[in-house]
Automatic annotation (TrEMBL):
Subcellular localization, as worded in the UniProt entry: Secreted
An example Gene Ontology CC term for this record: extracellular region
Biological function: Plays a role in the modulation of physical activity and adiposity.
The encoding gene: Pradc1
CDD domains, per database record: PA_hPAP21_like
Predominant location category: secreted
Keywords: Glycoprotein, Secreted, Signal
Residues in PA domain copies: 43-127
Membrane spanning residue stretches: none
Segments forming a coiled coil: none
Designated name of the protein: Protease-associated domain-containing protein 1
Amino acid sequence: GLRIHEYLYFQVLSPGDIRYIFTATPAKDFGGVFNTRYDQIHLVPADPPEACGELNNGVFIQDQIALVERGGCSFLSKTRVIQEHGGRAIIIADNAYDNDSFYIEMIQDSSRRTADIPALFLLGRDGYMIRRSLEQHGLPWAVISIPVNVTSIPTYEMMQPPWTFW
């Protein structure tokens, strides 16, 4: 994968009002890595948002990336639910919607289970803003590119969310 200081980056391509490059952190000791770059893949908010069991929109998760909310069960349990629905990766947003700077270290639970798909942690403010934009536009998902190699992008061209300081 394309990791810099244990960060991984993705860009929202659509909807346009959140066309930014977002920062996420990979799970510490479970999940896979991105061996493929996806230039246009759907980021599908899970229903229910915490993804601790059967999903109402699991058919839309198949071969896409799920946006899940923290809480209700372990990070690993969420990752396994998305993997079982055929998701290629999971992005777990903090459930503290005002969190715009504190990354949680996602670790293995004590169950000895494993997961093969990449699992990423996203700041709560970023997750909230993505979900809010989708709701405002009546869209079932965002279109993203992941991972994005930010080392090749000049700093002045970096389109980062205006609510986040890098």
